[in-house]
Design goal:
The chain is an alpha/beta fold. The protein has 2 domains: 145 residues, Rossmann fold; 32 residues, no CATH class. Helix content is 38%, strand content 29%. The chain has a 7-stranded mixed β-sheet with strand order 3-2-1-4-5-6-7. Helix 3 packs parallel to helix 4 and helix 6 packs parallel to helix 7.
Length: 179
């Protein structure tokens, strides 16, 4: 899904994908390969619960102006807050955030507003895996991607006893199953 969302950045020399922690590194690396983009990884620790500190971001930021941060979830937004601020200090002029699940907590809402106003956060993309609150939906830089098409692809492929192939058009799959 994130390959489709960020496909306009594929192969650009001024763009880097960033993993906020070791847990997302494998996923970010795979998306990076598919988009032809280099990757970086943040080294973080938690001084206290719900608080994140970025020790460093490991990667080559030479000539990079845009960063795409991918993660599985935003709860309080502490990790994203610390990371996007660090990316701004590294000279990143535009940050896009792609997150599978946004828990819609008020602390995250406030932090995202601050990052948009002060640290070059220009886009936050999430899925509708969790219903989004009106407060988040009103953010001018917030976008929700519908998962219905992805679920339809999986159900059709499983029903036809076929391998699940990401990126296949649902119409093509219906024809293949019917044929």
């Amino acid at each position: 899904m994130f390959v489709q969302v960020f496909r306009t950045y594929a192969g650009r020399a001024d763009v880097i994908l960033v993993s906020p922690d070791a847990g997302a590194a494998k996923f970010v690396t795979k998306v990076g390969r598919l988009l032809g983009l280099p990757c970086a990884i943040a080294s973080k620790y938690r001084p206290q619960p719900e608080e994140a500190a970025i020790q460093e971001v490991i990667g080559d930021f030479t000539g990079k102006q845009t960063a795409i941060v991918l993660d599985d979830m935003v709860s309080s937004g502490g990790t994203v807050y610390a990371l996007v601020q660090e990316l701004a200090r590294k000279g990143i002029q535009e940050v896009h955030l792609g997150v599978s699940h946004n828990l819609c907590l008020p602390a995250a809402h406030q932090r995202l507003l601050e990052l948009h106003a002060q640290a070059n956060l220009v886009e936050f993309v999430t899925t509708n895996s969790i219903p989004q609150t009106k407060a988040f939906l009103r953010l001018p830089f917030f976008r929700v991607v519908d998962l219905a098409g992805i679920f339809a692809q999986v159900i059709l492929q499983v029903h036809a006893n076929r391998t699940v192939r990401w990126g296949t058009d649902v119409g093509e799959m219906v024809e293949a199953v019917a044929g």
